[in-house]
User: Fold these one by one.
Assistant:
Number 1:
Amino acid sequence: MAETEMSPVLQEPRQVVRKFQARPQHEGDGAVVRRSIGRFELKYFDPFLVLDEFSVAAPAGFPDHPHRGFETVTYMLEGAVTHEDFEGHKGTIKAGDLQWMTAGRGIVHSEMPAGQGTSKGLQLWVNLSSKNKMIEPRYQEIQSNDIASTAKNGVDVRVIAGESMGVQSPVYTRTPTMYLDFKLRQSAHLRQPIPPTWNSFVYVLEGEGVFCSERSAPVGPHHLLLLGQGDGLEVWNRSSKPLRFVLIGGEPLGEPVAQLGPFVMNTEEEIDRTIDDYQYFVNGFEKAKYWRSAGMVSP
Ligand code: FJE
Ligand code: FE
């Protein structure tokens, strides 16, 4: 295959098959999210359950809540979020930082804005295959300075997961996933390979980009573009401002999905068992019995 690191040749560039505008909605306790994946019109884009562009300022937030059966990936854009879980694991995710949390059999935690002002970021929910749903919870946390990145020919990339422009992320993805944060300066052009069997999408954060076809209309912030079949993405920035977007892809699991809010299993029976486990503090939820986050303890 004729290919250089900077401009890999694409045999079959992917096209945009659906476009969504993510409008603000209320979630958690007074928080606002622009949900693109996970809303009614796009319940699931295998293996992705939710993509939220969130915006939250104190006293709003996401107080104590459980997860089971998938991963939450929190990537901060502005401000910071403090998290705290029922095992005593806590920390602050700051602008540019990443938290890749594998909830597995169970996590109960809080996610609240830290400091003054509005905290913004992306939260992606990646489904786990049946064989991984009940694994031990695990965190992979990377601070902004340690996120793999490179820049060439007017294209900057931060590699959250997977590989781009010769740079690889250290994050281990149980469900094979790529997650790239691109910035294209004026007149920059990008070709990014994507494994042909994977589902993939673009979410625009800033500026305007021409995606997939040189003749298509430019797309601005808060838009989700679902990509069709092919071996990669082609993008042009023909505007005078920088274009920032994320490209996310994953290997579809091809399994049935049974979801009740923050519990995502394969069957309704497993969901019923999960409700029991959570209610009776068993099978991974033992520590939820006496735990409350600092914010939930009455003065
Ligand atoms: C959740 C409602 C929620 N998007 N983005 C129901 F809001 C949540 C939840 C979040 C969330 C948290 C952050 Cl930090 C960022 C988010 C939804 O916590 F889990 C359920 N079940
Ligand atoms: Fe959560």
Number 2:
Amino acid sequence: MEAGDLPAVVSIEKASFRDPWTEGMFRGELHQTMSWHIVALDGGARVSGFLIARAYPDEWHLLDLAVAPETRRQGAAGAMLDRFLDAAEEVSADVILEVRPGNHQAMALYAGRGFETVGIRARYYRDTLEDALVMRYSPWTPRPGRGFDGPLLAIETSCDDSSAAVLTARGEVLSNVVHTQDAIHERYGGVVPEVASRAHVERLTAVVREALRQAHCDVEGLAAVAATVGPGLIGALLVGVQTGKAIAWSRRLPFVPVNHVHGHLAAAWLADPSAPFPMVTLVASGGHTALIRVDDKRNFALLGQTLDDAAGEAFDKGARLLGLGYPGGRELDELAETGDSAAYDFPIGLQRSARPDFSFSGVKTALYYLLREMSEKDRKARAADVAASYRAAIVSALMAKTLRAAHEARARTIAVVGGVAANSLLRRRLVVEGRAAGFHVVVPPLAYCTDNAAMIGTAALSAPVIAYPDYLSVDASASLPLGRWSAHSSV
Ligand code: KG4
Ligand code: ZN
């Protein structure tokens, strides 16, 4: 801010506050030794906003922040605030400010950057004698998508795949290595948590090494580390979280805790960076079946989910009843390709309900009874028809609820992620029917649909970054809810 900016600054101030600063007060700030003052310029290089603060040695005081009414909601306030917080962070200064309790827009802006309300100043405002809320920001508070500028190592161990990936800070995937434990769990017919944890311990170091090697990178060259902290199998998650934190700690790097479901959602914009928001994303895997409205890369809302089995589980249990392989979804899908999907009628739960929820326990039971009634010979002869009809019932439920939710949420994009996105009928129907209904459709390549660290790294780029040493208390959480980034242990 320079003296020539003052007329514009004064007029923005007047348009913004009931008790505005005078031109003399602004002029005084320009001559203050500890003053920090910047302006925002619009497309025509006119002053469209400003920020004034005092940079005291270990605490910075934000005094005034305003944007011209006609240029509000275009990100100028946030951009000035980020510039200011970056400068404060560089000298490890806390930032404090006062805000009117009724000014929800300003409070949301500050809260979004990690400011916390820490007290009040009684009768602070001269015009109304209202109290002011005091908000404080500490440099260790995580801010989304910031805090590093260089390669990121991402780790995923939430279930039965050990995976590591290296991404650039701009999101290009340099490597994505996945070691799946299917062969280990096959003989038990399901994932055994303790066995999974142990296998992660044995393999993860090699997987991380291989990801670094393929990316032509070493630990010295990393700028940050991310790991899935939940939801998932607690023992499995712990291996990835501790490994990630240890690598970050060894070089005092920032650490990014990632929510596994955020990771699945991120596969959509990893596969198709041009897909427009809002999206409705179907997350369908062995562990989850949920419909999520994704407003942008870090804001989402759960619309509905399965009330019992996950879709992948329904496929796997069906495959087991039909005597196919493990986990079975893919084998059942392949067999179904050769059968007649109209041969049998399977009931599917909640089909007529308007709720975007799913239920797959009924269809599985129906399959059990159908097979029980069939002769051994028929079970063999009609296996493909049974598989095709069973698959069609599950896919119809997924399709109907997804399209309906997308219409209701006024989404522009429909995406499907998770292992079940590998299903060939679901992929075909989503592309054809989704496009016919006017949606942009994203069906990521299989490598990004099943559990993998590239999607975790992609999510990390829009998640809060935690600087050393604050993340040492970050813990794994088996039931981390959507929208939560991390769980801190109580110690
Ligand atoms: O996302 P994912 O790798 O991890 C877990 O949640 O475990 O998903 C695996 C699930 C399994 O249930 C698997 O059978 C299912 O995705 N799946 C399929 C297909 N390929 C994998 N389900 C139906 N059709 C497929 N082609
Ligand atoms: Zn998953």
